C-alpha cells in the first residue's frame, strides 16, 4: 500500500513538471482599451493561432492610450506593471500598435529580463529606437501599411467622373496622407478636388454627408478622435459610415459590412493571426533571426454598397472578394439544411415508412373498395328489396331493388326518412305495412303493394336489429321478399283443390244420378211396353189411339234422352280435349231448355259465319261455367216483371282467339259488386254460396288458359269469355 502511494505521488509530480515545462506564458501589451475594435481584432487573430497550438497562457494588459495619455500616467503605468510583472516570468511579449511598442522598449530593463518582443501594427517601424535601447536582437515586427496611393487610384478608376474626394483622417499631419495623395495624382496624370478632414465630429460629418452629391466620394482612413480629442466609439463610426449618402472607401477591413464600399484593405484579424504564428515559432525555437514581415492586403467589397453606388471593381482589380452578398437559398437556410442533412437518414427511413404505410393503406383501400363493390354488386343482385335504417329512422343503405320499388332516386333516398316521404303514395303504403307489422308481426307479415305500371306484388316482411360494437351505431334491417309467385302458386293450388273438390262432387252427383237414372229408365221401359201392347192388342185401334201411343213414346224418348244428356253433363272430364264450343253450348241449352222456357226467357245463339269454334280444354267443365252465368242471368231476369226476357249468346273469332259473349237485359250488376263477383264465397244472393262465378273463373282462366271479363251494358250485364286457339289439328 505504501509503495502504491509513493508511485501515485511520483506520477502527479512528473506530470506537473512536464506540463509546466510544456506550457508557455505570453504577455500582450495592448495600446488601447478592451472593446477597441482594431486591437480586439488583432488579439482575436492571435488567439486563433494559439488555439491551434494549445498550452499557451495569455495575459493581456490594456494600456488605454486613447483615453488617458500623460507623462504622469506613463510613470504610474510603469510602476504598476513593475509590481505586476515582478514575480511573473513570461516567455514572450507581444506589443500591439505603436504606443505599446514604444512603452515596451523604453522600459524593457525595468519590466522584463530576456524576453523576446513581437511588435504588431500598421504604423511605420522605427529601427533607430532599437539601437538606442540595445534591443536589435530582441524585437520582431509584423507590419502592415495603409496603401493610400493605390486606393486613390482605384477610387478614380471606378468613379470616372469623380470631381471631389473627402479624405477623413484624424492623423493627417503625423501620417502625411497628402504626400501619398499627390503621389497618386502623378501616377494617374489626373487631378480632382481633395478636401482633408482631420478635426471634426461625427455629428457634423453625418449632417454634411446626409445628402447625395453627384461624382463625389469619401476616403475614410481613420477617425478615432474628434476635434475635442475625445474618443469616438466604433459603433458611432459605423453608424456614420452606414448613413452616408456618398460612397465610402477605406484602408482596412474594420468597417467592412458596416458601411464602407471596400478597397485595398489591411486585414486586421489576419495581422493578428500572422503575429500569433510568428510568436509560436519563436516559442518553439524555430526562429533564430529577427523577423521583419509585412502581411498581404485583402481586396474586398461589400455587395450591397457596390449595387447601391453602381461600382464595379472589375475595372481595376482582377482578383477580389465580394462579401455581404444576398443570401441564396442554401445560405439563407443553412442551419435548417444542415439539420436536415443530419436528419436525412432518419427522414429517409421515415419516408420509406410513410411510403410503405401509404402503399399498405392504398392496398387496403383497394381491397376494401373491391369488397364494397363486391358487397354492393351482391346486394344489388339480390332480388328482394333491402334497406338499413339507423336509430333515428334515416336510411343509411339500400339496394337498387328498394329504390326502384318505391320509385325514388338513390340520391334523394340516401339519409332520408320514410316518415318525411310519406306523402309519396308508394312510400305511404310501405310505411303503413311496416307500422302494421311492428304492431302484430304474426298477422301482418306480408302485404300487397302496387309497383310501377300498376302491377301488384305481394311482399313478405322480415326485420332484424343490428349494432356495430366499434362505432356503437345501431338500427334496423328490413328485407322485403317478393312472394307474388308463391302466393299465385298457393292460390293456384287452392283453386285446383276446389276444382278437384267440385269435380269430386260432380262425380258423386253423377253416381247418384246414374242410380236414379237406372231407377227411372226401368219404369219408362215398362210404360213404353204397356203402351205398345195396349195399342196392338186393342181391336178398336184407330188413328186417335195411335196418336196417343206416339205421344207417349215421344215423351218417354225425350225423358230418356234428357236423363242421358244430364248424366253426361254432370260427369267430370278426365282430360283436356278439342271440342266444339257451339255444340257444347247447344247441348247445355238443351238440358236447361225446360227451365228456361218455364221462366219465359228466350236464349238466342248467334254464330258468326266462318267462325272457328274448336278449342282445347275441358268440355263438361266449360258447360258448367256457362251454366253458372246463364243461371245468374235467369235469377236476375225472373226478378223483373216483364215478358221480354232475353239472353243473347254470340260466338265469333278475333285473330287467333275465340270470343263468347253472354248478354242479358236484367239491368246489370251493381258497381260495388263488380270487382268482387269472381272472388270465392262472395254472393249477392241471400242463399248464395259465392262459389259459382269463382269456379267459372278458375275453369276458364286456370284450366283453359282463357280470360273472362264482365261489364254492364245499357240494358244488362255482359260476360265475355276469351279462349286461345293455338293448338294442332283444329277443326272448323
From TrEMBL:
Gene3D superfamilies: 1.10.287.130, 3.40.50.2300, Histidine kinase-like ATPase, C-terminal domain (3.30.565.10), PAS domain (3.30.450.20). Residues 378-413 form the PAS domain. Its EC number is 2.7.13.3. It catalyses: ATP + protein L-histidine = ADP + protein N-phospho-L-histidine. SMART domains: HATPase_c. Residues 1-20 form the signal peptide. Residues 515-727 form the Histidine kinase domain. PROSITE patterns: HIS_KIN (PS50109), PAC (PS50113), PAS (PS50112). GO terms for biological process: regulation of DNA-templated transcription. The keyword Transcription regulation does not apply. Residues 443-495 form the PAC domain. InterPro entries: ABC_transpt-TYRBP-like, HATPase_C_sf, HATPase_dom, His_kinase_dom, HisK_dim/P_sf, PAS, PAS-assoc_C, PAS-like_dom_sf. One of its GO terms (molecular function) is phosphorelay sensor kinase activity. It comes from the Bacteria. The chain crosses the membrane at residues 339-359. Keywords: ATP-binding, Kinase, Membrane, Nucleotide-binding, Phosphoprotein, Signal, Transferase, Transmembrane, Transmembrane helix, Two-component regulatory system. NCBIfam families: sensory_box. This is histidine kinase. It comes from Malaciobacter marinus. The lineage of its organism: Bacteria, Pseudomonadati, Campylobacterota, Epsilonproteobacteria, Campylobacterales.
Amino acid at each position: 500500500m505504501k509503495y502504491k502511494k509513493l508511485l501515485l505521488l511520483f506520477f502527479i509530480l512528473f506530470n506537473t513538471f512536464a506540463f509546466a515545462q510544456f506550457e508557455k506564458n505570453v504577455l500582450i501589451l495592448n495600446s488601447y482599451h478592451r472593446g477597441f475594435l482594431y486591437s480586439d481584432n488583432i488579439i482575436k487573430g492571435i488567439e486563433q493561432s494559439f488555439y491551434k497550438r494549445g498550452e499557451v497562457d495569455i495575459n493581456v494588459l490594456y494600456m488605454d492610450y486613447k483615453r488617458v495619455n500623460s507623462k504622469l500616467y506613463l510613470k504610474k503605468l510603469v510602476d504598476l506593471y513593475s509590481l505586476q510583472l515582478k514575480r511573473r516570468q513570461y516567455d514572450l511579449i507581444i506589443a500591439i500598435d505603436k504606443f505599446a511598442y514604444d512603452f515596451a522598449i523604453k522600459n524593457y530593463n525595468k519590466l522584463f529580463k530576456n524576453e523576446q518582443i513581437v511588435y504588431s501594427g500598421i504604423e511605420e517601424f522605427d529601427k533607430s529606437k532599437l539601437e538606442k535601447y540595445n534591443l536589435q536582437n530582441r524585437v520582431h515586427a509584423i507590419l502592415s501599411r495603409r496603401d493610400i496611393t493605390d486606393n486613390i487610384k482605384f477610387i478614380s478608376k471606378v468613379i470616372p467622373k469623380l470631381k471631389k474626394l473627402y479624405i477623413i483622417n484624424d492623423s493627417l499631419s503625423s501620417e502625411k496622407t497628402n504626400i501619398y495623395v499627390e503621389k497618386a495624382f502623378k501616377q494617374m496624370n489626373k487631378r480632382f478636388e481633395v478636401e482633408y478632414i482631420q478635426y471634426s465630429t461625427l455629428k457634423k460629418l453625418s449632417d454634411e454627408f446626409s445628402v447625395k452629391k453627384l461624382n463625389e466620394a469619401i476616403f475614410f482612413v481613420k477617425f478615432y478622435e474628434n476635434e475635442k480629442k475625445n474618443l469616438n466609439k466604433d459603433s458611432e463610426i459605423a453608424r456614420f459610415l452606414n448613413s452616408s449618402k456618398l460612397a465610402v472607401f477605406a484602408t482596412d477591413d474594420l468597417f467592412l459590412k458596416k458601411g464602407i464600399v471596400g478597397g485595398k484593405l489591411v486585414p486586421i484579424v489576419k495581422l493578428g493571426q500572422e503575429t500569433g504564428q510568428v510568436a509560436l515559432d519563436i516559442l518553439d525555437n524555430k526562429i533564430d533571426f529577427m523577423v521583419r514581415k509585412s502581411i498581404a492586403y485583402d481586396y474586398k467589397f461589400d455587395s450591397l454598397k457596390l449595387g447601391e453606388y453602381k461600382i464595379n471593381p472589375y475595372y481595376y482589380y482582377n482578383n477580389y472578394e465580394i462579401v455581404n452578398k444576398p443570401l441564396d437559398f442554401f445560405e439563407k437556410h443553412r442551419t435548417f439544411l444542415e439539420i436536415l442533412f443530419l436528419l436525412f437518414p432518419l427522414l429517409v427511413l421515415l419516408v420509406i415508412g410513410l411510403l410503405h404505410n401509404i402503399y399498405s393503406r392504398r392496398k387496403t383501400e383497394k381491397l376494401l373498395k373491391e369488397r364494397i363493390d363486391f358487397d354492393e354488386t351482391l346486394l344489388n343482385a339480390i332480388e328482394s328489396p333491402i334497406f338499413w335504417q339507423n336509430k333515428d329512422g334515416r336510411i343509411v343503405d339500400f339496394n337498387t331493388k328498394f329504390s326502384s320499388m318505391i320509385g325514388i332516386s338513390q340520391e334523394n333516398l340516401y339519409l332520408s326518412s320514410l316518415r318525411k316521404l310519406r306523402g309519396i303514395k308508394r312510400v305511404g303504403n310501405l310505411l303503413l305495412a311496416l307500422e302494421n307489422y311492428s304492431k302484430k308481426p304474426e298477422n301482418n307479415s306480408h302485404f300487397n303493394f302496387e309497383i310501377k305500371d300498376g302491377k301488384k306484388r305481394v311482399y313478405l316482411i322480415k326485420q332484424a336489429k343490428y349494432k356495430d360494437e366499434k362505432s356503437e351505431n345501431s338500427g334496423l334491417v328490413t328485407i322485403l321478399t317478393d312472394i307474388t309467385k308463391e302466393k299465385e302458386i298457393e292460390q293456384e293450388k287452392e283453386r285446383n283443390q276446389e276444382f278437384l273438390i267440385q269435380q269430386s262432387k260432380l262425380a258423386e252427383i253423377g253416381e247418384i244420378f246414374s242410380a236414379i237414372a237406372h231407377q227411372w229408365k226401368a219404369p219408362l221401359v215398362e210404360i213404353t211396353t204397356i203402351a205398345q201392347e195396349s195399342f196392338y192388342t186393342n181391336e178398336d185401334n184407330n188413328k186417335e189411339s195411335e196418336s196417343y201411343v206416339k205421344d207417349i213414346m215421344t215423351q218417354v224418348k225425350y225423358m230418356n234422352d234428357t236423363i242421358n244428356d244430364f248424366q253426361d253433363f254432370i260427369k267430370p272430364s278426365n282430360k283436356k280435349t278439342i271440342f266444339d264450343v257451339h255444340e257444347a253450348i247447344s247441348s247445355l241449352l238443351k238440358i236447361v231448355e225446360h227451365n228456361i222456357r218455364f221462366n219465359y226467357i228466350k236464349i238466342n245463339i248467334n254464330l258468326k259465319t266462318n267462325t272457328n269454334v274448336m278449342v282445347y280444354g275441358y268440355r263438361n267443365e266449360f258447360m258448367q261455367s256457362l251454366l253458372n252465368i246463364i243461371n245468374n242471368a235467369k235469377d236476375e231476369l225472373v226478378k223483373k216483371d216483364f215478358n221480354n226476357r232475353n239472353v243473347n249468346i254470340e260466338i265469333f273469332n278475333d285473330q287467333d282467339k275465340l270470343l263468347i259473349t253472354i248478354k242479358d237485359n236484367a239491368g246489370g250488376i251493381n258497381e260495388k259488386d263488380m270487382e268482387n263477383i269472381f272472388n270465392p264465397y262472395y254472393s249477392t244472393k241471400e242463399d248464395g254460396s259465392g262459389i259459382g262465378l269463382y269456379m267459372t273463373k278458375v275453369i276458364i282462366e286456370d284450366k283453359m288458359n282463357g280470360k273472362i271479363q264482365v261489364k254492364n251494358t245499357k240494358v244488362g250485364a255482359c260476360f265475355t269469355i276469351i279462349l286461345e286457339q293455338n293448338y294442332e289439328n283444329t277443326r272448323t
